[in-house]
Amino acid sequence: MGVDLDSTQLHAVVVHEFGHTLGFYHEQEDSATPLSCTAAGARDMPADAVAAGYYDQLSIMNYCNNFWSLGGLSRLDIIGARRYYGAGQYNVSGVDSVFADITGDGRADALVVNNDAVYVMPSTGAGFTGFRAATSVPFYGGMGTYFADVNGDGRADGIAVNYEGIGVMTSNGTNLTNFAYWSDDALIGGRGMFFADVNGDGGADAIAVRDDAVYVKLSTGLSFGPTQQWTSVPFYGERETFFADVNGDHKADGIVIDDSGIGVMLSTGSGFGSYTWWTTAPFYGSKATAIADVNGDGKADAIAVNGDNTYVMTSTGSAFTNYHAAGGAAFYGTRGTYFADYTGDGTADGIAVSGVLWGQSSYGYGFNYPSQVSSVSFYPIN
Fold it and tell me: Cβ contacts of residue 176 below 8 Å, gap of 6+?
C-alpha cells in the first residue's frame, strides 16, 4: 500500500498527534464547546485539564475544526504551546508584538493584541510613548491577527483571519475602526498567512502558503478579491517564509529561508516567477531571522540575529551579498526581536522586546548603539 507523505491530511494528523505528545487534550472536550459539535468526547474535559484560553474552533486539536485538514496551528494553539514550553527562537506572525505605522506619519508604531483590545504606543521618532487602546472592542483572529495597509492610504490596518473569512478594521490615523468582513470565504494557509502588496497597487494583499502552492486574494481597497493560485509548485521555507520587495519594483516577492540558503520567487504582478537561489550558503539567526530594508535603497535585505551580533546581507536586486556584522554587540529581546522603521528615515531599525522596548536605529550600513525606547513594558498578555 502506498503512502502519500506530502498529503495535507497526513501533515494534520502528525501535528495533531504531536499535540497530544506535548500534553494537549482534544479541544472539543472543553465545556464551552457548542452543542453543534457532536464529535466524540465533546464537552467532556478530563478533571486534571488546565485551560490555556477560551474555546478554540480552529485548534488543530479540535475534531470540529472545519479546516483541520490544512494542518495549521491556530492563534491559541501557538499561545498555549508558548505558555508552557517557551517562546523559542523564532518570531511567530500574528501572535507576538507588531510594529506597523497606523498613524501614517512614516514611523512604525508598537502594537500588541490582547483579549480585550488592540493597544498602541505611537512612535515619536526616538521612542514609543502614549500607551492607549487603539480599538474599543476586542479584535483578533482565530488564525492570526495582522497589520498592513490594505486600502493604500499609507496607514496600517488591522486584519483578523477567521474560519468564516477575513475581517478588517481600517485605521483613521488614530484608531482602528469600522470593522467589516473583506472576504466572506476563508483563505487559510497551513504553512502561514501573510499580508503584503504583491501586485504593486499600494494595497496589501492576502497570501496563504499551503503545502501545494501559494494562494493570493488581491486587495481592491475595499475588499479582497477571489482566490488566485500564484505558484504552480510548493513554496515555503524549512526555517522561515517571508513576503517583501527584494528587487525594488514595489511588489512583494516570496522569500524562503532554508538550511542551505535563501530562495526567492519574484512577483510579476500576477504571479510568482521562477525559483532562484539568492544565497548558496546558510543564512539565518539563532535568535531571529528577518527580511527588511536596512540601508534604505528600496530593496529588502536579509537579517540574522545571533547571540553575539546582528548580521546583514544586503540585496542587490538579484542576490543577497556583502555579508557583515551590522551591530556593535549582541541585540535581541527575550520576547522577540523585530525590524521596522520607527525613526522615519526610510531604513529598518532593530527593536527588542524584553518587557520594555529597546531600539537600535539603523545608519544604513549597520545599527547604532542600543537605547531604551519605552518607559513601560509592552508585550501581549494572553
Answer: 102, 118, 134, 135, 139, 157, 158, 169, 170
